[in-house]
């Protein structure tokens, strides 16, 4: 499985889990309307308010995972959400709260779960989201560092364009003159002299320059076959 496929599977699974997480928080809050809620010891607000905030944050991440086109943005937001959840749990531990069962009991009761099981499920969700997003972001960073950029030379204007080895063979608009440019790895190119039809081989970085033909000594411009001057 390549990185792009792994990222797609992970972000899809993260969106599904967070959608379920959001629905559970919202349904739990609606079912507990009118009930007295314990106050969050870290933020000093009722737990139902904490659940509304967490649910809205998770919903925002779900929408980005479903509709954004940048994989790194999706991973970064999933990591942000999970990191905030983990930091919140560490903050609770810092103020002396080691058991969350009493704080999630109202929510757990709606789904007929124990407070301990609900706490464990929340912890497992955050751990999965954090480790998965962090690992894939690190994988992408290492891969980008390993891929040294190549340079292609436009046959029309002679401008240089840097590109990833993964894009070899693609045709893109030249960023300098906007004419079609096929991304080729560096190496020698070949052409025929316009005057004597002699074969000439030259490095790709010399594309667009003028030189005497080695056969007939007339000045020619080095370009790809079929390129328009």
* Unreliable runs: none
Outline: rod-shaped
Tell me the radius of gyration.
29 Å
Report how far the terminal alpha carbons are from each other. Answer: 44 Å
Number of helices: 5
Number of domains: 2
Number of strands: 8
Helix and strand pattern: HHHHHEEEEEEEE
Strand order of the largest sheet: 1-2
Q: Write down the overall mean pLDDT.
A: 84
Q: How is the main sheet built?
A: 2 strands, antiparallel
Q: What class do helices, strands and sheet pairing give?
A: alpha+beta
Helix content: 40-55%
Percent strand: 5-15%
Write structural notes for this entry.
By secondary structure, the protein is α+β, with helices and mostly antiparallel strands. The chain folds into two domains: 3-146; 150-221, no CATH class. It has five helices and eight strands; from the N terminus they run H-H-H-H-H-E-E-E-E-E-E-E-E. The protein has a two-stranded antiparallel ribbon with strand order 1-2. A two-stranded antiparallel ribbon has the order 3-4. Helix 1 packs antiparallel against helix 2, helix 1 runs antiparallel to helix 5 (115-146) and helix 2 runs antiparallel to helix 3. The model has no long low-confidence stretch (mean pLDDT 84).
């Amino acid at each position: 499985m390549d990185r792009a496929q792994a990222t797609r599977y992970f972000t899809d699974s993260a969106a599904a889990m967070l959608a379920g997480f959001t629905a559970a928080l919202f349904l739990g809050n609606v079912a507990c309307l009118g009930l007295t809620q314990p106050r969050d010891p870290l933020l000093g607000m009722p737990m139902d308010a904490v659940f509304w905030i967490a649910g809205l944050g998770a919903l925002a991440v779900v929408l980005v995972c479903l509709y954004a086109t940048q994989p790194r943005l999706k991973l970064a937001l999933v990591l942000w959400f999970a990191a905030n959840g983990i930091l919140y749990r560490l903050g609770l531990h810092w103020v002396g709260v080691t058991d969350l069962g009493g704080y999630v009991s109202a929510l757990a009761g709606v789904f007929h779960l124990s407070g301990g099981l609900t706490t464990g499920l929340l912890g497992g969700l955050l751990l999965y989201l954090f480790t998965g997003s962090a690992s894939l972001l690190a994988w992408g960073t290492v891969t980008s560092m390993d891929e040294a950029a190549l340079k292609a030379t436009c046959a029309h204007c002679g401008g240089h364009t840097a590109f990833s080895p993964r894009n070899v063979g693609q045709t893109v608009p030249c960023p300098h003159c906007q004419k079609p440019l096929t991304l080729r790895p560096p190496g020698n190119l070949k052409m025929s002299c316009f005057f004597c039809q002699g074969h000439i081989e030259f490095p790709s970085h010399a594309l667009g320059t003028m030189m005497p033909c080695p056969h007939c000594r007339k000045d020619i411009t080095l370009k790809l076959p079929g390129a328009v001057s």
